[in-house]
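User: quick one
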Amino acid sequence: MQARSCTQSSLQLTLTGANGGKTGRADVKLLKVELIDTATGKSLGQLTPRNPRLWADAAGAYQVWDQLIANGQQAKVMFDLSAPDWSPIGGRWNAAGKVFRLQATISAGGAESTATREVSIEAPEVMVDPMIET
Amino acid sequence: MQMRMAGLLAATVLAMASGCTKQERGGGTGEHPKPSPITADTPPQVSAVLSAVTLADD
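Assistant: Done. Structure below.
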């Protein structure tokens, strides 16, 4: 039997710092990540972010990020997320084919903002034995 | 005496009128807060775009 693949929930943000001083840095915090069913508008709860990483072009990989943004800097960052709780809609199978909205609340330099993105959920991969009589 | 009184009255009216004008001017220009200057260590304003999302199966 084939081992089931495990997908890590995650989000990627593109952050841009502007209108600051030459040596000024903004402290960036991902305060809240919420999953919302777009059909009903109901929340499926919050996902906990962890392991902030910054994309380093030179290394071609994500590296540990101190969560600071400089003026004029564009940063591609990534957070791992805790797995969604699909029970409010009756489980993962019922999520297939639906569209959800992920809403991230970010604090940067003391100012809060919200970034959202819609996500389509595909049917989970299932291994079915072929109906061949042996 | 009458001339002196008339002169005093005229001066008072003139002072009131000019005071009123000053107040109008002052109200228009004197009370705006100055924008805070950007110093070297002023933190930048940060805009965020959610560029990708992956959701686990369970």
